[in-house]
Amino acid sequence: KGEKDHCENCRPISLLSIVSKQLERCVLMNIKCHLSQIICKCQHGFLRGKSCVTNLLEAIDYIGRILDNGGQVDTIYLDMSKAFDRINHTKLITKLRNYGFG
């Protein structure tokens, strides 16, 4: 807005260098590779292609197979809302270091 000759009328733009984008991609690939080795395959949270719905479908399938074979199923449901807010962050950082982060 205003006259184009005045600097205060122009908004600056920022272009990330291609090198930094490639470095970021390499770091991300290494983190994903490391996490895939330590995260259990049954984990559904915060993973691409998995969600609460896929977790629920897997649980229903598992329970259905047990019941079809005459078995018994006992379940416990926990509410983990606000769990991260209540966690001891010092212990969390220690755990992350034990897994090779930091």
TrEMBL record:
InterPro entries named among the record's database cross-references: DNA/RNA_pol_sf, RT_dom
Pfam families (alphabetical): RVT_1 (PF00078)
Record-given protein name: Uncharacterized protein
UniProt source species: Paramuricea clavata
Classification lineage: Eukaryota, Metazoa, Cnidaria, Anthozoa, Octocorallia
